[in-house]
Amino acid sequence: MGWLDGLFGGKKREDAKPALPFAHELPLGLRINGRVAFDTLTFRANPQAWTLRLPEGHQGIPCYGHIDLGGGHALHRFYLDDDAYLQISTANGQVEGIKAFVFNDTVNPPDQAAFRRFIHEHPHLGAASIEYAGRTWYREFGDGVAEKVPPVVYDEVLYRHDPPRRDDDLTHYAMLYRREIAELERDEFLLITAEDYGPSEFVVTYALGIDLNTADLDIT
To answer: What is the pTM assigned to this prediction?
Structure first.
């Protein structure tokens, strides 16, 4: 009946908005080309306690990554201008956790064989504890297992541009480590990820992270 409404002076139909490439809602009002700023007071007040430094000021969001973990669980990664990303974990659309990660180091395996050796043999992808950046980190997964465990494998779909469109796909081989900052009663995380973009592009990233809540964020 929309054409009749127009013919007889009824309410005009609003222009249809372009369909987004993902069927799910993005959490906390975050979006590609939006902006987010972190409360960095705890880092400025205790710089010696931390390995990471969150970026200052409002950060643009040029890229969004979606990781479907199954069973209604997902990770939403909002990649920022200054080599960092905000990660929101959700269950059936409800926010369960917020972390921020800052890329600290990148390794480029020269070929697929070197990439596979890193995945299967390097202690940073599965040892119970590792040394990195002058600190000791303890594996978050595989409690009670003293030997090296396999990395966690998951796929990520990346979206860019305005309006957003699917831009890239990659497979992660990852391991999360944690260390306790006793004097602050906080934890710091180390996420080591071997990223397979296929067929000949491979990257290993070291990202330092921290738990946050919505009060730590200014989203615009």
So the answer is: 0.89
